[in-house]
Amino acid sequence: MKRSQLLKLSAPLVVSFWLRSAFAWIDTIFASLLYDQQGESLGDASIAAIGLTLPLEFLLTAFWVGTSNGLTARLALAMGAGEGQKVDQLKRAAGLIITALGVIFLIIAGFVWWSADRVGLDPLVARQFQIYATVLMAGSAVTSFWSILPDSVVKAHHDTRSTMWAGLYSSIANIVLNALFLFVFHWGIFGIALSTVLGRFAGLAYAIYRANMHERARRVRPDQQVQGLYSRPIRRILFLAVPSAITFVLMGMESMAVNAIIKDLKDSTSLLASWSIFDRSVRFLSMPMIAASVAMLPLAARLYGKGDCSSIAMELRTGLKAGTVYVILMVVPLAIFLGPVIGAALSDSDVTANLVSQSMYWLPLAVLGLMPFILSRSVFDGLQLPKPGLVAAGVRTILLIIPLVWIGSRHHDAFGLNVMQGICAGYMLGTVISGVGYFIWARRRLNVMDGTCPVQQD
To answer: Which of 86, 91, 93, 175 is the most exposed place for a label (fewest CB within 10 A)?
Structure first.
């Protein structure tokens, strides 16, 4: 592991992603403190509403990450070749893509507002979801997507520390605004959503500052004056962005499907709140691996460009070893000892608290199963092969996780489990099978290349 470039490149991203994910709990924590005008708690309903919004956030993340991956890869390639004109051209093309994404998510926000009380949810949950999801989607159309451009420029310049600081500034602003809107203005779940949207401006401003600083220095460098333009720059970005985004969309469908399965069960509000906490926990504890996968993409692409697939295989093994150690030493103790504490702290009822505690024991295996999937996906993208990611994500979502979660929710008694345990067991099993299968596919691809991998043109 000492010789691994992956661990070195991942370190700042691990800090950045973990901080962002940790602060993502802020909305859930503040939501657990909400009460109506009669003094009745709105905590479980509000947490359930946030859980229902997670798939939409995942959809937003899918478009964000897909576009960022495509843009970052193209910018880094042009910078490496000294093609300064192409860098500026790609940035202009990215602006058009980002504008289109903003319009799409404004439309989604309008649809959420119209449909929230028409899908069979508990009326209180539906109202909280309508407010929270609409504000978050509409606001993100302005704040989140426009951060793609400066963030991609910064990463293309290999300045991962600025990514960390931008995330930290956004998170601190979110906490301050949450407290202001909730305890001073008493805006309820509307204030919680609005604070998330406005807090992102802090990170966006810092990212723009750093990106402009890097770009001013680049434009005057003599090694960045190679002339030439792409004939279709938008297509160049989308060639890598679209498959990556669709892969995330498919994974986001998992949470939507689980929410749909749960909403028709007995005690659906408690189950939705419990699943929301479990789902958020999986994402939070997977942050180091997700950060490693983000680092793996440009690393694999560089090694692929050099024709050195043996090093890609070595970095993949290193990532899996480091991830396994992390799960054993950190995820397992956290799940066992903090799981019940989290359930009790965030729940209104003993039913919800017990369900959360039961779900936490499935966390380590779920995180462990996700690790090879996300690392293998980055390897294939680095090899300029986006289609395997689509196939693997489709199999994972449609053929494994959704059916297995449904079986667990309806036939849990046959396996000696309660309903929450059945849901988590189905999710865990689908995650492990898909992760192991995708890793075997990646390893075989690298073995076929026999250590050398000539670059193919897209």
So the answer is: 175
